[in-house]
Inverse folding.
């Protein structure tokens, strides 16, 4: 939880200078004309057993980051170290072996389950892929997993359409747990669900983390949810991390103007609190990642913008106790 | 303040192959001039259908308004014929929808779409309508509006399209604006821009608003009064402050408890509502929330409570006084399938 003694804590995942650019090609010759700079130079790490929240608005590159970490995309540059091993460099066989330790839960529980497979096959597939156990052992394991995520083990022969959104997301969680991973990327796992169902899934993820000592990268656009579940939070904007610190420090002492604006824009379900709040209303829209602004990416909307912000990019720096910020306001 | 809208016993059904979907089940409410009313509930609770019914916007068939009255300015909207209701829609009562990406016509210019209602309802000629369109777009914060009239919707971002929708909604100075989840598809900083804009326009123009949402956060700072819907029924209604501070229906209590709050001081466990809402084709005989309720008593299984006052301007539909008893049942005891 706290940042005290963080020096001794084991870093499970380390991301160094990660870039994920998607080329834009034109014409018959497939001429390379530009790049969508979805993720543009990220540096951070995830401690073993913690939940790192990755928050940002649509198109900021948070999902791409999750996928690039798991090597679902081949990163343009950079390194992703998992327990010290660089995933970008290892060969396919080794990577497949590593995948047992890293799994993913997807946003849309309607699109991420194959409608023609039974629940048993969906949850058992990772076991089959990794050649774990005999058929009977696998079936037993699937029943066990369904019980763990709060589904009736008798549902094993049913199909996804027979389940509600929340139940389907539980199936997705069970599939991710099947191979006993250490690290799970949760990509907006609750955004497609109703409020009362969201709480069920959040509680489930928290219980499983405690039970199995899991490490999460929790990607979401809702800062209230991210603050609730995370130990530390990274705020992304247009392909870059603007600020990264503990959940409480981020709320009580936000340093980056974007974090400040984002915090003030999140509505709090309490009229007495809302009455007294001052909103920072940002002007305009997010620029395109094809052609990000020169200097700081946030400079076009920043209420505290200075001359230098439009010229040079600020460094992502530690201002004590692992409170990282990329902003010229604090760099002399 | 005088009464602007009065809905009495509104009932909407959908006749489908699988059976009759009881989407809205005899709800009654009112709205005063200049007031902002929020209707809150989860998907499928009938909140959108209930306001679409007001303007006869329900596709018929399969839908049918099977009962009730909607009094607006001395007339029953449900008794109006097509021509009459068309005069009300977009003119006296305007509506903005959830998805700004699909509610604008992609092959018509922004200018055409905004000025259409002006020419139709206000009898303006083309030049006057164009001039007024520029004013409206500037009012909702679109810069260099005159240069953007001939742009098409795809040239606008999501937040700007929703501004255009609001400009269209306001074009005929409506007395009532119905906003159906207008910020749900937008990012949180853009959502703040839009709610800020709506608040400002409301104070300037003095129109009444019905704001439909599933987000208890957005309405906390926006609405005067609030209704909570569940399975096509209104289960609680109160002034916003009263409702958040003193929720009296177990469903409202559950909803508020299941929300993570940005300002929470320490991580606590969310109190989730177990189970699922009932099937609207096969509604239970008693209270629709019975299966998921931690406060339930035997009576709830057989009789559906009606709205009854529990305080000044505060009504709730529950047999149990939640201030007097503790929730007795846990999820496991209730035997709810998850």
């Amino acid at each position: 939880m706290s940042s005290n003694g963080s020096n001794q804590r084991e870093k499970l995942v380390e991301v160094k200078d990660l870039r994920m650019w998607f080329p834009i090609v034109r014409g018959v010759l497939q001429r390379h004309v530009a790049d969508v700079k979805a993720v543009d130079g990220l540096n951070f790490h995830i401690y073993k057993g913690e939940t790192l929240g990755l928050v940002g608005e649509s198109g900021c590159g948070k999902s791409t980051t999750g996928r690039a970490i798991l090597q679902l995309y081949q990163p343009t540059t950079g390194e992703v170290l998992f327990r010290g091993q660089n995933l970008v460099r290892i060969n396919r066989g080794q990577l497949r072996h590593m995948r047992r330790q890293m799994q993913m839960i997807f946003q849309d529980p309607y699109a991420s389950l194959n409608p023609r497979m039974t629940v048993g096959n969906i949850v058992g597939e990772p076991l089959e892929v990794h050649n774990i156990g005999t058929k009977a052992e696998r079936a037993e394991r699937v029943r066990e997993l369904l019980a763990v995520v709060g589904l009736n083990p008798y549902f094993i022969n049913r199909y996804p359409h027979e389940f509600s959104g929340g139940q389907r997301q539980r199936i997705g969680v069970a599939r991710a747990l099947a191979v006993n991973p250490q690290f799970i990327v949760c990509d907006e796992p609750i955004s497609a669900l109703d409020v009362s169902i969201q709480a069920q899934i959040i509680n489930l993820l928290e219980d499983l983390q405690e039970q199995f000592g899991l490490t999460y990268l929790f990607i979401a656009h809702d800062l209230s949810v991210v603050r609730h579940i995370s130990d530390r939070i990274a705020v992304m904007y247009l392909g870059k991390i603007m600020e990264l610190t503990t959940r409480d420090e981020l709320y009580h002492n936000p340093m980056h103007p974007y974090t400040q604006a984002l915090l003030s824009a999140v509505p709090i379900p309490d009229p007495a609190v809302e009455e007294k709040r001052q909103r920072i209303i940002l002007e305009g829209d997010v620029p395109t990642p094809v052609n990000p602004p020169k200097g700081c990416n946030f400079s076009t909307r920043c209420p505290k913008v200075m001359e230098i912000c439009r010229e040079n990019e600020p460094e992502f720096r530690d201002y004590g106790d692992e409170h990282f910020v990329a902003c010229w306001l604090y760099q002399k | 303040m005088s009464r602007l809208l009065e809905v009495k016993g509104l009932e909407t059904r959908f006749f489908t192959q699988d059976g009759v979907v009881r989407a809205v089940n005899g709800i009654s409410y009112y709205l005063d001039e200049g007031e902002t009313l929020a209707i809150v509930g989860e998907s499928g609770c009938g909140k959108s259908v209930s306001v679409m019914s007001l303007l006869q916007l329900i596709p018929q068939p399969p839908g049918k308004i099977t009962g009730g009255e909607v009094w607006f300015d001395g007339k029953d909207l449900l008794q109006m014929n097509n021509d009459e209701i068309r005069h009300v829609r977009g003119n006296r009562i305007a509506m903005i929808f959830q998805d700004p990406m699909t509610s604008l016509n992609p092959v018509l210019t922004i200018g055409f779409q905004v000025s259409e209602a002006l020419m139709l309802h206000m009898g303006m000629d083309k030049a006057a309508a164009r001039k007024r369109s520029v004013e409206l777009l500037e009012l909702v914060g679109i810069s260099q509006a005159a240069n953007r009239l001939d742009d098409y919707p795809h040239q606008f971002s999501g937040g700007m399209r929703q501004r255009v929708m609001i400009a269209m909604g306001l074009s005929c100075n409506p007395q009532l604006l119905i906003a159906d989840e207008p910020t749900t598809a937008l990012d949180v900083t853009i959502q703040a821009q839009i709610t800020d804009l709506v608040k400002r326009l409301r104070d300037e123009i003095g129109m009444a608003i019905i704001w439909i949402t599933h987000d208890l956060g957005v309405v906390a700072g926006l609405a005067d009064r609030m209704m909570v819907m569940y399975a096509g029924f209104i289960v609680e209604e109160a002034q916003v402050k009263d409702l958040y501070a003193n929720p009296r229906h177990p469903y409202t209590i559950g909803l508020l408890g299941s929300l993570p709050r940005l300002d929470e001081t320490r991580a606590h466990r969310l109190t989730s509502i177990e189970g699922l809402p009932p099937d609207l084709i096969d509604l239970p005989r008693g209270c629709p929330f019975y299966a998921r309720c931690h406060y339930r008593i035997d009576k709830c299984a057989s009789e559906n409570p009606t709205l009854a006052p529990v305080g000044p301007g505060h009504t709730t539909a529950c047999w149990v006084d939640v201030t007097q008893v503790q929730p007795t049942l846990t999820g496991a005891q209730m035997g709810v399938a998850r």
Q: What stands out?
A: The radius of gyration of chain A is 21 Å. Chain A has one domain: 6-255.
